Amino acid sequence: MTSPWCRCVETARLAWGPARLSAEVWTPLGNLDGRSERQAEQVREMRTLVSERRAGGNLVLVSHGSTISALTGVSPDPAEMVIVTPQGGGRFAVAGRVAVP
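RESULT FIELD:
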């Protein structure tokens, strides 16, 4: 899933190919920088999604530093990934960070 902002859509396309992108744009992943009026709602929606345990694979979200920071408390570097482990019930744990060279 990706933020609707063009740079996130392009990142998702480059990483996973255009066929993987159909119907995967998700508004709550949008940039929170300068948009604090939506922060609580967006974080709540994202928290619900990332806390759910999934069978059969991982969920990959492409978003913005401000949005990731609001959700996880981690301020990622450009192109850095934040890995979380779902724990159910609106909870998740930050499992690590991966820097992309």
